[in-house]
Amino acid sequence: MWHSLIIAFALMLILEGLLPFLFPAHWKETFRRMIQLKDGQIRFFGISSIVTGLILFFVFQSF
Questions:
Q1: In this predicted structure, what is the pLDDT of residue 13?
Q2: Which DSSP string do the residues of 1-63 spell out, in sequence order?
């Protein structure tokens, strides 16, 4: 279990690092826009990510 969790965390770090590495100007612009969002909008994106991740987890858990 711990091995799978560490692998998943490593893949997340790789994917999270791609955008700032490949497109630093776009990445900074995206964060500049995010700062202007209201807390409710940011929370909506957060809960959407959580729900999407849970759905994907349960759908692909059986494979």
A1: 94
A2: -HHHHHHHHHHHHHHHHHHHHH-HHHHHHHHHHHHTS-HHHHHHHHHHHHHHHHHHHHHHTT-
